Structures are given as C-alpha cells and as structure tokens.
Amino acid sequence: MKIRFYNARILAMDKDMEIRRGEVWVDGSKIVYVGPGKADDGEHEHPVGNFHLDEARNWDREIDTKGNLVMPGFLNAHTHSAMTFLRSYADDLPLHQWLEQQVFPMEEKLTGEDIYWLAKLAVLEYLTTGITANFDMYFRPEEIARASVECGFRTVIVSGLNNFTSSLKAVEQEYQKLNHYHELICYRLGFHAEYTTSEELLKGVAALAEKYQAPVFTHNSETREEVEQCIKRHGKTPTAYLDSLGLFAYGGGGYHCVYMSKEDQEIFSRRGLTAVTNPGSNMKLASGVAPVEDLLENGVSLAIGTDGPASNNCLDMFREMFLVTGLAKLKEQDAAAVPAEQVLQMAVTGGARAMGLSGCGCLAPGKLADLIVVDLHQPNMQPLNNLVKNLVYSGSKQNIKLAMVNGRVLYEDGRFFVGTEPEEIYQKANEIVRRIDGQR
C-alpha cells in the first residue's frame, strides 16, 4: 500500500533529535520520503524513491496526523513473550527461587500451541506501547515465529539453549531455517545463561559463532549471586569467562548486565557488545540497578528490554525508559545522569543495533516502515516544551495512536489489525492458564 502521513511533527532519529514538520510516505514495506509537506498542487521538487511526480497523488490512504508525532517504533531488545501466562502468577520472589520453584515447573506443561497463543497476547501489548519489534528468547521458536508472522509483527528470535532444553544440533537447524522463514523473522545464536549451560555446550555455541561469523547473546551478570558463583567455578566473571571461550568473537551482547566490573565493561566495549538493560524486571526481582552511566562512559552500546511478563509484569517501553533514567539518577546521586535523549536512543537505535535490524531505528528513504504515531493532544504531553523529554519523562502507552510494522497498520485508535480478534486471544490465554493450573 501507498500511505501518506501528513501534517506531522517528525522525529526521524536519523542524525539528531530535531523535531521537524512535514510528511512521511510509505510504499509497501519501505519508507520512500521524509521531509517537508507537498505543495498544494501535489508536486515535489524532485522524484521521491520509486514514486514519479504524477504518481505521488495515488495514495491508498492519507493520514492527517493533526500535528501529532511520527517517529520510529521502539525496539524491545529482551523479551520472553510466551511467559504472558505467568503474569501476576509467580510474584514477590527473588530470581533463582522464582525460576526454580515457579517458572520452570510451569513451563514444562506448555505445548507448542500454547506458546503460539501466548506470544500473540504479548504482540498485542507490544503494539499498544509503540513497540514494533522484539528480541525474543523462548523454547519452541517456530511457534513464536508463526505467531509473529500471522500478526504481521517483527521478531528477532534468539536461542535459549541450556542443559535442559534444545541441543546444538537443534540450534543450528533453527538458525538455518528461521533466518529464511519470513521477512519479519530473524534468528540469532544464544544460550540461556552461564549458570544453566555446561562448558561443553558453550564451546559448541562458540563453534557455531565461528562457523557462521555470528553474534551471541545471553543473560549476563543479572544478580550478585550469579557473578559470585561463576567466579567460584571458573575464577572469572561471566563476561570474562564467556569471552575466554570465544563466544563474543563476532559480537553479540548480554541481557541485564547489572554487576559489571571494569574488566567486563572493557570487554563489552572492545568486542562491540550491547548491554540490554531491563530495569523493571531487575527492580521487581530486587536484582539490582545496572551501572548505565558507567557503561555509557566506557563506550558500551546500550539497548532496553522489558524482559518477560512474568518478571516485569508490564511490557511497556515508556515505563522502562523512565526507569532507566530515574534509577540511574538515583544510583549516581546525580540528576543529570543518563538524560532523556540518551534513553530514547537506547529504546530505538540501540535496540535496532542489538537486534541486527539495520533497516529499522530511523525514518529515512529506504528504511523499513516500522513507525508509530504519538498522540500529543493529551494533557501529559502538553505543553510542547521538549517532545523528547516528554516521551521519556511523561509519556505513556495511552499516547500511542498508531503502530505500523513493515508498512502495515497493526494498531490504531485502540483497535488491532493482526488477523485475530483480541477476545479470542484472551480466551485462549485464560484456557491455557486454567488447564496448567489444574495440573499442579
């Protein structure tokens, strides 16, 4: 479809944080123009993308944004989508007790079909908060891919290999298959964590990374206990130990990165790794506060993830952005720490970098049409003193008016266009929970 967004404020995030007035044109899955509005006669000074001047009027749809903000969608760089079934179920416990006593036993009862429906539920929530792509770690990845493609949503899947699920053979098969599954799906190498994955398996992942010259991702240094136990086992922090095995030779990153030594940060910077911070989950599980200011000062790339709906429990990028900066200011005792502009970069371009989505993260001709419209005509966004700071400090999911992925509107004015009625997804999710709960 050819779609024109006009009468817009535009935050392109291509070079800076400047807000401009103008239009965004979409043709199929790509953006073909970002710039000043058309003249009254419908002509431009020059051809735009694949549009010819006389074709520029043949829109399938024209959307008057009424002065609202058009910007790239947020990229949620760490998720466990299908864990929606554990939302508000396994709460108020520390991480390891939460995992071993509540999460793992319940997950054993999930079927592939369960995961498919539970992932769809997460997609609905992502869209309502302006998230247009996620970086998902869970078992039965083909079911995650199927759910995302049917919804029209963009998902990068990462292997959650560990001692209890999957195998190196399965990971390689998934890597080969899912990287050619659909244009909305990518697959990255990974494993759950150092403390759940044997050295033999880790060396196998490193061999796959070498074979495919691919980045590797994992949960890393989430709790103090995790780091202390790794040092006890191997004489090194998780970051240093994993790096010594060759796992980061081609980049990648870590989820959480709460307890990072200076050496860990130097490794991340030197290897070009991304630290994906998850403040909502880390705060709720009392895991700690990531050293975001130190990571930035040491040249480490950062992105933001919500983590899963069992540990957060809300898949809301606005809340995560506020927590990133708010907790950093509190940790550093410095109100100037981690300003709004840096946080927004993490939520958009940082996520795109972490996920390897070079076509996302900014609005420019040739980029993928993954964008959102933010409603500025609400009290929490007024006055318009500084829109970037409004997004981070006072923005809310209530401000998401429209979410587009790959040139297709999936959410608009409270309505979903994902191929399945929301009530059916809700019904399925509740049926799954009742069945599993009855098996306890």
Structure explained in plain terms:
The protein is an alpha/beta fold and 440 residues long. 37% of the residues lie in helices and 21% in strands. The chain has 14 helices and 17 strands. The chain has helices at 95-107, 112-128, 141-151, 168-178, 199-212, 224-234, 238-244, 262-271, 279-284, 292-297, 317-332, 340-355, 387-394, 422-438; strands at residues 2-10, 20-27, 30-35, 61-64, 69-72, 74-79, 131-137, 154-158, 185-193, 216-220, 252-256, 274-277, 301-304, 371-374, 400-405, 408-412, 415-416. Helix 2 (112-128) packs across helix 3, helix 7 crosses helix 8 (262-271) and helix 11 (317-332) packs across helix 12 (340-355). The longest helix has 17 residues, at 112-128. Residues 39-50 have low confidence and may be disordered.
- First-to-last CA distance: 49 Å
Mean pLDDT: 94
As a whole number of angstroms, the C-alpha radius of gyration is 22 Å
Helical residue percent band: 25-40%
Write down the overall geometry. globular
Low-confidence stretches: 39-50
Number of strands: 17
The number of helical elements comes to 14
List the helices and strands and how they pair.
Elements: E1 2-10, E2 20-27, E3 30-35, E4 61-64, E5 69-72, E6 74-79, H1 95-107, H2 112-128, E7 131-137, H3 141-151, E8 154-158, H4 168-178, E9 185-193, H5 199-212, E10 216-220, H6 224-234, H7 238-244, E11 252-256, H8 262-271, E12 274-277, H9 279-284, H10 292-297, E13 301-304, H11 317-332, H12 340-355, E14 371-374, H13 387-394, E15 400-405, E16 408-412, E17 415-416, H14 422-438
Parallel strand pairs: 1-4, 1-5, 6-7, 7-8, 8-9, 9-10, 10-11, 11-12, 12-13
Antiparallel strand pairs: 1-2, 2-3, 5-14, 14-15, 15-16, 16-17
